[in-house]
Amino acid sequence: MKVLNYGEHTGCVHFDQSAKPQIELVRMAKKVKHTFDLNHNEVIFFLEGRVELISGGFPACEVTKGKMLFLPAGGKYTYLPLTDGVILIFRLVEAVQLCDSFQLERLVGLKKREKQILIVRQTGILVPWK
Questions:
Q1: Distances from the Cα of 54 to the Cαs of 33, 59, 85, 118, 123, in angstroms?
Q2: Cα separations (Å) of 81 from 7, 31, 64, 94, 102?
Q3: What pTM, to 2 d.p., does this model score?
Q4: CA distances from 27 to 49, 67, 77, 83, 112 (A)
Q5: Which residue did the predictor score with more confidence, 82 or 110?
Q6: Quick check: 130 pLDDT over 50?
Q7: In whole angstroms, what separates CA 91 from the centre of its chain?
Q8: Which one, of 61, 117, 97, lies nearest residue 125 by Cα?
Q9: Going along the chain, which residue ranges are E strands?
């Protein structure tokens, strides 16, 4: 998978060239382990490859191409690419509002059934929640 019109994106006056841009395409080399702390919430899309992700005292999980992760700010994470890969990172610098009175961050503390009800209220679609 590749980003369409990549040259136009990087040539735009709004393109963020800071060390931690809001949108970043990252290529990962197989078996090169990285550890990082998050200052912002991040949504990560796995475009290519397989990665083992470790967070705090939780068991390691394997994430593969086509999957997406939400990583909350304040955590320390370690990842080990099991193959070469590409990820697309969206750093959420401001609070994400699902409606006038509900922020995305509040989903973390909800139970499975409460999340399903919230999604139905927001979208009108019942999503199977695993």
A1: 11, 7, 17, 29, 32
A2: 27, 5, 10, 29, 35
A3: 0.63
A4: 10, 16, 17, 11, 34
A5: 82
A6: no
A7: 8
A8: 117
A9: 23-28, 34-37, 41-48, 50-55, 61-64, 68-71, 76-81, 85-92, 97-99, 102-103
